[in-house]
Structure prediction request, 888 residues.
Amino acid sequence: MNKSQSPPHFFLRLFRCFCHPDYAEDIEGDLLERFDNRVHKVGHRKARQAFVWDVIRLFRPGLIRPISGSQKLNLYDMFTNNFKIAWRGLLKQRTYAAIQIGGLAIGIASCILISLFIKDEVSYDTHYEDGERIFRLANAYTDANDFGRWTLIQAPVRSILYESFPEIEKVSRIVVREWKNAGDNQFRKVESKRNIYEKGFIYADPEILEILEVPMIYGVQKDALKQPNSIVLSRSKAEKYYPNENPVGKQIALNDGETVLTIGGVMDDFPGTSHLQYDFIITLADFEFWPGEQTNWCCSNYEYYLKLKPGTDKMALEKKLLYIRDNFVIPQLEARGATDVEDVKKFRSYYLQPVSNIYLNPDEVGDGLPSHGVLDVVRVLAIIAVIILLLACINFVNLSTAKSANRAKEVGLRKVIGSSRLDLIYQYLSESLLYSFSAILLGAMVSWFVLPWFNALTEKAISFPWMEWWFVSSLLLGVVVVGILSGGYPALYLSAFKPADVLKGKLRLGSRNVPLKNGLVVFQFVTSIVLIIGAMIVHRQMDFFLNKKLGFSKDQVITIESADTMGESRQAFKEALLQQSDVKQVTVSSYLPIAETAVNNYEFWQRGRKELDPGVEARVWSVDADYIETLGMHLVSGKDFLPSSNSDKESIIINQKMADLLNLDQPIGATLVSNFGSPRRVIGVVEDFHFGSLAGPIGPLCMLPGKSGSQVIVKVESEDMEKTMQSITSLWDDFMPNQPIRYSFLDERFANTWTNRMLNRIESIFLVFAGLAISIACLGLFALSAFMVEQRAKEISIRKVLGASIKSILVLVTSGFVKLVFAAMLIAIPIGWYFMRQFLADFAYRIDLSWDVFLTSGLLAVFIAVLTVGHQALKVAFSNPVDSLRDE
Prediction:
């Protein structure tokens, strides 16, 4: 057989070690014959893969080499002796042992932390007893040029689902986005006067408690939300406001009495692994957001949760749901004169998303939830965990094989006095298992110690599972896996030495594994450089987001929240603020130009073209006459709203994007119609500004005149912000003595949006694990350079005696390692460029991939490697050659 087409040598040797001698020759012949046939049929690469699998499948009783007779009697003594030798070796070479155990411990600690994070992420919504029957209903749109899924659906669909689909057991709608009392509110008991800010309010139908199997502390699950104007509190909020009592039947007031609700029950807190994290559920029973809203098909405001009857075919039900599209949605569109009816007939459908898929959202369903897990982050972390552990194992393999010179005579002598190769493999595997056990114990302690910091980094509340059976068993399994993974090759390599060659001095010790050793060092630094590139690119993208020209001013802008409880005195408060010396402008609105703000969308057309053109769905904001000036926006044409102009009541200001989508060449004076309200005349066009996530493009937006809103937005110019806030707080207390002021700064809220937090988290993850990877690589490099210096000490001393300069010694010691790191740099740069290009493709606004990032990352790795090896190089360069040559 051609040597280049031989089976994997490692697995062939492994087979010869474990296979029963009575069958070994026949089975090996069959294996090689089968491998040769596969080479001709499927190619060399696939044949080698199949050979590996064939060997693994032979690990079964009857085929494994037996241990019997005196071997069985001495088994305990053999293992005891092996571990004693391993322990003595560990104590004798403390530096190498510390590097090997320390490197493995770092890799194992990283694996433990990442595994705990991944376990937490994938465990969301897996606690339901009937989880396989719980789904969220989503719209789906699929054609050759477009694909999308989203959850917002019209109100009347609920009754249709109950009436026309017997496969559905229960239906509930929920409203999670900020609308009416969903979101946050000022909360108090009816009998109290002091308002307290609370968040986590949603609307839902009574069935939601049964569908999501929510345990009840007080009240009955199916009846808690049945009565109009009822609300269910979580256990933690009930204990806060009604400690040690049953609050069912008591009344609470929202927003200083604007809404009064009766407590219908107290539910247990949602588990930490639920995608819904809310403390207050307001009933939708007999409730309408406006008159006729529950029977109107105009607006899609609800997310639908369904519980199917046992045995229901999900895919068959999805097809059946087209009944809603064909008999209700399309007639409504035709009645409105919509132009996309034919596309809806072809491409619009419904999709049932399993509840367990909602949090990580692999189906990419757009919804109103404030945040999701990110499946790509989970995947990247899993890959990083494996890579970090591999880097640590590579250190072990490299150091073990590099130190073969120190153990060659030991191997030769043991074989001469009767030790079999299998005995030597057992001994070296015992050593690696001891190192593995020590590293896993240390790694577990390290991960437990840094877990609070890791929780802060990942925004989690993971507890360390010391007493969980799966964790302890995983650690024990890890001892074996890591021990074999890191010690398997060195054991086979060392045990293969021929005693005659070793004892005659013919063996060039450590030379046979140079290509493997160099390849593993290159792999370590390739990984490290790619992670450094990732950290730098993410940092630059984050910096780009925070410093990008947004089209509005976010600096020194204060948002005073929950101001809607002021009622009619809100305008007086605004005028009083303008009297403050540091206050330059004030505006009142519920809308802010950041991603996590109130959302209100409607469709618009030019007047006279509603039946001809598709509608343009745009954000609709209600603002007062000072909004644009306060936030530093720029009108490119037309005028702003006037404070007391009656003619502006039917006017509208649009952004440039909306003008483009409506094909308005001369937008000023154009009249727009929508699926709500009366026609409006365009009086101004505002320059495009970012009001959503910077990951997506700027969308269409319009502003309507209004003086109400939940936030007072204050632009200040102050050198002493603390003093300014004290003055504003004092003024607030004069107007609202029963409600503490709540304020934030617009620039901080922008920086703390979900996209920016996620980018910041990814950057931190890359930085941390790039640091760990480079640390592990440098630990191995340090040990290899120290060993190389030890092996070549006499050669270097002779060179110095013959006149070699310190510079030439430094070059001799460092050049080989530096070449490896430069090779890693050349390999890592295209890999890093490819993956970072894919990462940035998801952002509508992104940085350019600049060459300096890749060069800096590579040179940084080279610099760190030179520092690592340089210590050993300087040490030997300045040493006295007599110390090495005195034995000669």
User: Anything to note?
Assistant: Confidence is low (pLDDT under 50) at residues 69-73. The first helix runs from residue 9 to 18. DSSP finds 28 helices and 25 strands in the chain.
